[in-house]
Amino acid sequence: MTPRTEQQPQMSVEEFEQLERHAPETVWLEFINGKVQVKPVPDGDHSEIIAWLQRLCMQQRPELWLHGERGLKTERYRKGRARADGVLVPEGSLKGHGEWSETDQALMVVEVTSHDSDTNQRDRVEKPDGYAAAGIPVYLLIDRDDRTVTVFTHPEDGRYRQQVNAPFGAPVEIPDPVNITLDTDPLKEFVD
Predict the structure, then answer these.
(1) Domains in the chain, start-ordered, CATH in brackets?
(2) What angle do CA 158, 161, 165 make, to 5 degrees?
(3) Coil, helix or strand for 178?
(4) Disulfide-capable partner of 158 in 133, 170, 175, 187 (CB 3.0 to 4.6 Å)?
(5) What confidence score (pLDDT) does residue 33 get?
């Protein structure tokens, strides 16, 4: 049997979108590297982390908005579909968008690790590459397992060329075009 690749996906993007539209509300699907994946529904701590980040973004950059659980067209040629935990865009940028938005207005995308077996491959490997290939300037990974925050920047040729990693509790600078500073000490209360 031939392994699936981006060149030989499980189905077309159109077939995936139709499947996703008919999935139960309790199931979130993504289409990453040509295969359908089930994204875990966030737990309470996960949701609180996104709310914490929304508050910080509003305080420091009120002209921007961090939208939670936003569908994005990712990867090369926008053949992937990822449901980001957060997408930072200029206010009003998603007006008129359907379920899956182009990434041209996205300044930053955020993922918070979940406690499931796929989080390593999905959040630490596949999504950074898909977001970089889509040209999103900043990928922020809040890793509850490692208790770290990683800022990926400078997307080029489908990879982020720079990454800065800091433990929970350290201040984290998110550079242009975001330009905010995170006091990550509150993240300590959202890990087991």
Answers:
(1) 42-190 (3.90.1570.10)
(2) 120
(3) coil
(4) 133
(5) 77
- 171 touches 181 (CB < 8 A): yes
Residues 168 and 17: their CA atoms lie apart, in Å, by: 37
Determine the length of the chain. Answer: 192
Q: Are 121 and 131 in contact (CB under 8 A)?
A: no
Classify burial at 82, counting beta carbons within 10 Å of its beta carbon; exposed 0-12, middle 13-18, buried 19 or more: buried
CA nearest 140: which of 191, 86, 89, 185? 86
| Contact between 136 and 109 (Cβ < 8 Å) | yes
**Contact predicate 153/137, CB 8 Å:** yes
Report the candidate in 184, 87, 187 with the shortest Cα–Cα distance to residue 138: 87
pTM of the model: 0.84
Structure token pair of residue 165:
């990693």
